[in-house]
Amino acid sequence: MIERYARPEMTAIWSPETKFRIWFEIEAHATMALAEIGVVPREAAQIVWEKGSAATFDVARIDAIEREVKHDVIAFLTHLAEIVGPEARFVHQGMTSSDVLDTCFNVQLTRAADLLLADLDALLAALERRAFEYKLTPTIGRSHGIHAEPTTFGLKLAQAYAEFDRCRSRLVAARAEIATCAISGAVGTFANIDPRVEEYVAEKLGLTPEPVSTQVIPRDRHAMFFATLGVIASSIERLATEVRHLQRSEVLEAEEYFSPGQKGSSAMPHKRNPVLTENLTGLARMVRSYALPAMENVALWHERDISHSSVERMIGPDATVTLDFALARLTGVMDKLVVYPETMQNNLDRLGGLVHSQRVLLALTQKGVSREDSYRLVQRNAMPVWRGEGDFLTLLKADPEVSAKMSDAEIAECFDLGYHLKQVDTIFTRVFGRA
Amino acid sequence: MIERYARPEMTAIWSPETKFRIWFEIEAHATMALAEIGVVPREAAQIVWEKGSAATFDVARIDAIEREVKHDVIAFLTHLAEIVGPEARFVHQGMTSSDVLDTCFNVQLTRAADLLLADLDALLAALERRAFEYKLTPTIGRSHGIHAEPTTFGLKLAQAYAEFDRCRSRLVAARAEIATCAISGAVGTFANIDPRVEEYVAEKLGLTPEPVSTQVIPRDRHAMFFATLGVIASSIERLATEVRHLQRSEVLEAEEYFSPGQKGSSAMPHKRNPVLTENLTGLARMVRSYALPAMENVALWHERDISHSSVERMIGPDATVTLDFALARLTGVMDKLVVYPETMQNNLDRLGGLVHSQRVLLALTQKGVSREDSYRLVQRNAMPVWRGEGDFLTLLKADPEVSAKMSDAEIAECFDLGYHLKQVDTIFTRVFGRA
Amino acid sequence: MIERYARPEMTAIWSPETKFRIWFEIEAHATMALAEIGVVPREAAQIVWEKGSAATFDVARIDAIEREVKHDVIAFLTHLAEIVGPEARFVHQGMTSSDVLDTCFNVQLTRAADLLLADLDALLAALERRAFEYKLTPTIGRSHGIHAEPTTFGLKLAQAYAEFDRCRSRLVAARAEIATCAISGAVGTFANIDPRVEEYVAEKLGLTPEPVSTQVIPRDRHAMFFATLGVIASSIERLATEVRHLQRSEVLEAEEYFSPGQKGSSAMPHKRNPVLTENLTGLARMVRSYALPAMENVALWHERDISHSSVERMIGPDATVTLDFALARLTGVMDKLVVYPETMQNNLDRLGGLVHSQRVLLALTQKGVSREDSYRLVQRNAMPVWRGEGDFLTLLKADPEVSAKMSDAEIAECFDLGYHLKQVDTIFTRVFGRA
Amino acid sequence: MIERYARPEMTAIWSPETKFRIWFEIEAHATMALAEIGVVPREAAQIVWEKGSAATFDVARIDAIEREVKHDVIAFLTHLAEIVGPEARFVHQGMTSSDVLDTCFNVQLTRAADLLLADLDALLAALERRAFEYKLTPTIGRSHGIHAEPTTFGLKLAQAYAEFDRCRSRLVAARAEIATCAISGAVGTFANIDPRVEEYVAEKLGLTPEPVSTQVIPRDRHAMFFATLGVIASSIERLATEVRHLQRSEVLEAEEYFSPGQKGSSAMPHKRNPVLTENLTGLARMVRSYALPAMENVALWHERDISHSSVERMIGPDATVTLDFALARLTGVMDKLVVYPETMQNNLDRLGGLVHSQRVLLALTQKGVSREDSYRLVQRNAMPVWRGEGDFLTLLKADPEVSAKMSDAEIAECFDLGYHLKQVDTIFTRVFGRA
Predict the structure, then answer these.
(1) Is A407 a catalytic residue?
(2) Is it true that domain A95-345 has CATH number 1.20.200.10?
(3) Which listed CATH number (3.20.20.140, 2.60.120.10, 3.40.50.150, 1.10.40.30) goes with D354-414?
(4) Chain-chain contact of A278 with D307 (C-beta, under 8 angstroms)
């Protein structure tokens, strides 16, 4: 995570201030729960809540204490005691540091997931708007980078919409994975703390109690979370790659918006480069890479070891901040994408009608020609066109074996663009629920 | 995927015979659907179905054709035509190779997922049985590899159960991700094929129509599928690592079953090594590694490129076969695991009562000692025990600052093991729905 | 590793026959070394060598024994004893299985490295030949997929040559990493075997003795080896991606060779797809992915655990066979690549002279115009050209601010293509040592 | 990279101040080189050098300009012009941004490599010192976590030394990979800049000219660099894992140094956890993960795209800062490691002499017993010991089949510890060049 690729709302989730505030809330809720079940005096719990809520935690002071005791939660509790006074002794009773750390991390991840869901909603809205805008704008469909058959630019965007809609569902599932709370003590047996405390805190924080924890919340949950972010990043890469291709000099069917003051190149003043989507390609590589250490974190030793911690201090912010930035950037790109329908049409016409070859092939088989013969007939007329030696329609009409089976009108009918657009509404209805 | 780590049922899914059979079914169902909507003669579709169903496809023959035409689906269709006769010309009408290939791959993956789900069920059954067997068997809980507080061996297994139960849910979701069918033509516009064909084939194969495909079924689905397998593999690694730790010479609380004829080491005849779980650790690394190329596969160019294909020819079998083998092996390990409750008790007693230090700490604070002072008192009596210089209980009783606050009986009460087991039923009920 | 992407010579290295042959050589050399230092009778060592050399090891028989004893080396030694007779008792004295397994794996890897080095030599030869063939063929250089300035097709190939030449040096270093031998006993102390045995065997097998082994040869060596293969694969992906771009319908400056009988698409007969380089892109993803489990293999427990073994049984063949195939395929692609210099020239002319904008910018600054003003002048004439509204040279001449500083001839001189080619010989000399 | 796991010297390399200083040096050296070959006035180059050298670049000002022009190098040049005055127009002539950016990145990486080499030297020194300290301290060697045969603690450290010595050599090679300079213009043709400028700047900065660049320095170099860091990190993980194992409650042969004020656990005051080495395990996962996006960066499109940039802005600092911190932390751990030779001896004696089983096996075969029979004899006496039913030496002496072949004295001789230490000097001489 670097400032250049970070947005303030997501970054704030990972600030020490936010972290200590969440720690406090966990501790104070737990103390209150202990009061509810009669373990600590209710007034003490009240004082903890009130004094802590009113206070601003002094990050520098906590850091100073940590340098001495070499333990972050103890440092925080020491500082809290400075604020709360004698009632602080009722705080953290029967709890272990991980109860605080793991629950806090999950609170941060759920908040991060909420921001990412909002990012996805914005992206989906932009994609839907642009998809309908270009629903029937013909453009060449390409497989292997080679012209295949016509499609529409709206269909390209509908595919992107459907893909990010799936990403949204995955993120909802991933959020549920890590929306758990553990207040279960040193090895998860609730020896020193009543399970009702966990239930109370979980409810206050909008989490679910972890069914069985072992000091730590099990890290398969987090592995699944970060793996899901990696998949979302891969979808970002796909759409970014599409834009990069469309903006190539030879294709130029669409372009990232280029603001008036912007300079494309220090050396070549004419250049307008797809730098945003190239940037997104790189960011996707990063978010994807964080899935691996998250998976390696699963196999903690026995009831817990702390090897996951350094990983999570990094990938927690790195993955969520970078993905948040990337989604917002992609939304901007798609929202303002400059689209050139005319160039699309020109490119479509570029191969001299070859894009209609399959339709000719089918028409021939329907006239009773074998598939193998049809293929041969079509290919022998396609190849000269490919070499720039003529127009596909003309050549077909002039081929006696073809004209023996199909009239000129029948051949020409194969070249109708509308033929390819007739199911656009069907697909739009599948994707958007409307056409 | 290598034979050593493969089981026949999963391997069979990836045989050429199975693949061609599925290709045939897709083609034959599609031809039947075309007959239903009046595009091809019903009798022709019937003949295709009957002759193809009765035939055994000749893999060597198809391979020979492919070497000539350098295209696998065309090779298959050519061979099918040899079997079916002239009606073969109605097959594959308006379809593109990817319609067959992608739908087939998803059929294979769903079948693989079904086997993996059965594997998980078997593993869950073994874990549940053993968890109840050792529900109240005390054992030391360890954080950082250091003795922490008592837990039970059943709780360790309950945690594993809960983790694999989550893995099961994830796999169900992952299966749904890739249970789709696409019969949408060259760039997914249904230009040459009616969407009803896709719906018909999907239903016959137990799949869902892909809402919008672009010759290919989008690969974010597969990325999610293989990422999920990677997470499951990581959970395997966790449980395997636990067994490896328990079997260490110095711990020896449990052992992999060692069959009579087995030799542990060519050089050291006494050795009984946790080779199965070490092996599982390595297999987990492999399954996890396949998530990455699956994610890189997402960003295909434009409507498709074929870079994903070589990856999937490898990781399709490699990931599913290896994971199937690993789950079955882990089930065997857990089912036959030799458990030594006595050693567990001996290890538990090893630290001279230090494992009860937190309880003493809590008791002191409840007597009104500040948390900081309590910590100091406990630590100064714990350190000599750690150095082997005495027994914790004795030292505490002899400490005047401690005895000023707690009677000997109160101190002794802190050393009661039952204290740690009182919530086992609560946790079992959360995990298994019964205790 | 699958047959489709495998070549026989590399595959043979990983066959059980080769493995058992190498095992035998290690054991027989070691026995001979033991004879040299007087530990076993020389005649016995001679008999072992002769009978073993003459024999064909029965893979099925060894497998059957292994199923019983569950230990591969013991199974082999048992079979060897069946062949050699009573003298077999002198075999494997003081050795441990890993002495055989690890040394064998390194022999296999060095042989694999030798094949890969030969592959790289063939690729370098093809690249050099084609680089000189197109040394001065002008083509547009592209940054961000956007036309930048002219370069030559030979320079593109020279860059690829330099990159694979670096890969070759890396592979030489990687080969040295794993060209070690360990015959050091159960924990590497040479307690039961003299270090001279290790030296003897190492020399016979063309290896170096491992300075300190601990039953296993340390796996950082193998991590480095497989990471290096991953880097080479990434360079394959780069060149493959270049070809894929060049073959795009809109670019079409080069094409993979398309054999007469080949069919590009089952549906679209005109298509000629860059399937080989797309395939290489996927294979690169696979080879790259194997670096990860190889790195995870490094941290074996204490003197060794066997978790690396299953990983290596897979990635040993998978990585080397796939990379061998990929290098050979890439060599074929580059050797037969169909190049279209005319299209290159057409594409170069496509942007109406904009590719010369930097040269105009420089000329203006050399006439005393500030960099900022020059940039502004160039950009305001470039933008209309970009929009298809005119020719860059004409517009510049018509711009009064430009013509106030430069004569028409001076402006025109900026559009000379030769200007960009003047250092080609310099670069070729750097890369090939000749121009 | 986060502050918690960062050291100031390495962090400084990645500060904007350092970056702009390097940018300035590249630009100023290049201007001077242009003066040398007569392209710009020598006095102008002198003024650029002097004014720039004396100035402090205003990072905030440059950022402000960048926000407007959206191009970092142009922003810097604009600011430089504010400092230098009219002579600034001679700066950057014929260069492209990447000339500055790529060369700067390589300068930063070589400086980072130098720090890492110094880190490795410090680690090697610590390992050598401790290795000699415990050269002959007996400890049990473990394979599969199971007691195998005796070794010495010094040998464990010698192995670590040898491994990090290899890492050092790899890093030297990796440093050479990225110690190159490119000043070759927009597509690397030197069209607007003389190759002598590149040579001049390279020499001034201690770099080698990149033989053929294409606006960018090829990223296979960086992939190799970061992959090497990943391998080094994996070796850190290995040694860290060893310490974690040794500190386990049941093993406790060594411990991380635990400072007086330190608290091990907020809940369990007696605990002393191997938190530093657990932390290193996590950091290793992170450094390793950065190898992947670095490899994906290789396949830039055509002469360059900028997708690598965001990746490198992150992994450049992240990988080097984290690895620097990890190496320094590991050095501290090994330097201050508390070693318990007595516990080592106790653990060694734990298995009732079973660790000598192989020696007994060998002695029996040397007495003419077949390998299979020897194995059987040893195993039948080992198994009761394993079950805690007796002492290996006593049982062997009582076994009539054994005593028929070996006298009691001969059997006892097999239990001599010195036997296992006799080659320690040989190994030390191999590793350290002295014993």
Answers:
(1) no
(2) yes
(3) 1.10.40.30
(4) yes
Contact B141, B150 (CB under 8 A): yes
φ, ψ dihedrals at A80, nearest 5°: -60, -40
pLDDT in tens for each of the 435 residues of chain B?
789 999 999 999 999 999 999 999 999 999 999 999 999 999 999 999 999 999 999 999 999 999 888 789 999 999 999 999 999 989 998 898 999 999 999 999 999 999 999 999 999 999 999 999 999 999 999 999 999 999 999 999 999 999 999 999 999 999 999 999 999 998 999 998 999 999 999 999 999 999 999 999 999 999 999 999 999 999 999 999 999 999 999 999 999 998 766 665 555 555 789 999 999 999 999 999 999 999 999 999 999 999 999 999 999 999 999 999 999 999 999 999 999 999 999 999 888 888 888 889 889 988 989 878 998 899 889 888 877 788 899 999 999 999 999 999 999 999 999 999 999 999 999 999 999
Q: How far is CA D288 from CA A285, C43, D323, in A?
A: 14, 52, 10
Which residues in chain D have their CB less than 8 angstroms from residue A309's CB? Answer: 278-279, 282
Q: From the candidates A144, A259, A266, A270, which is the catalytic residue?
A: A144
CA nearest C388 in A: which residue? A343
What residues of D are in contact with residue A279 (Cβ under 8 Å)?
Answer: 306-307, 309-310
The architecture of the domain spanning A14-93 is: Orthogonal Bundle (1.10)
Q: How far apart are CA B390 and CA A387, in angstroms?
A: 93
Looking at residue C428, its amino acid is: F
Question: Which of D278, D281, D313 shows the shortest C-beta gap to A4?
Answer: D313
> Hey, what CATH class is D8-93 in?
mainly alpha
C-alpha distances in Å from residue D296, one per residue of C158, C285, D82, D266: 22, 9, 39, 43
pLDDT at A270 over 80: no
Cα–Cα distance for residue pair B70/B78, rounded to 1 Å: 12
Residue of A145, A251, A385 lying closest to C270 (CB–CB): A385
Q: Residues A169, A265, A370, A407: which is the catalytic one?
A: A265
C145/A274 Cβ within 8 A:
yes
Determine contact: C71 vs chain B, CB below 8 A.
yes
Which residue among D148, D244, D275 places its CB closest to the CB of B268? D148
CB contact under 8 A, D237 and C299: yes
Is residue A228 less than 8 Å (CB to CB) from chain D? no
Binary contact (B378, D269; C-beta < 8 A): yes
Could you give the C-alpha distances from A240 to A62, A141, A263, D413, in angstroms and in order? 43, 17, 21, 73
- Distance CA(D183)–CA(A97), nearest Å, equals 54
Q: Is the ipTM of this complex over 0.85?
A: yes
Please name the fold of domain C95-258+270-345: Fumarase C; Chain A, domain 2 (1.20.200)
Q: How far apart are CA A232 and CA A160, in angstroms?
A: 12
Tell me which residue in D250, D292, D378 faces B347 most closely, judged by beta carbons.
D250
Question: What torsion do the CA atoms of A149, A155, A156, A158 make, to the nearest 10 degrees?
Answer: -160
Give how far A350 is from chain D: nearest CA, Å: 23
Name the neighbours of C, counting chains with at least 3 Cβ pairs within 8 A.
Answer: A, B, D
Residues of C in contact with D365 (CB under 8 A): 89, 93
Rounded to two decimals, the pTM is: 0.96
The token pair that represents A278 in the structure block: 């190239």
Q: Who's near A59: CB < 8 A, 6+ residues apart?
A: A16, A17, A20
Please indicate if any CB of chain D lies within 8 Å of the CB of C431.
Answer: yes
Tokens of B232: 């499951």
A270, C145: Cβ pair inside 8 Å? no
Both structure tokens of A289 = 């890479």
CA-nearest of D101, D113, D43 to D71 is: D101
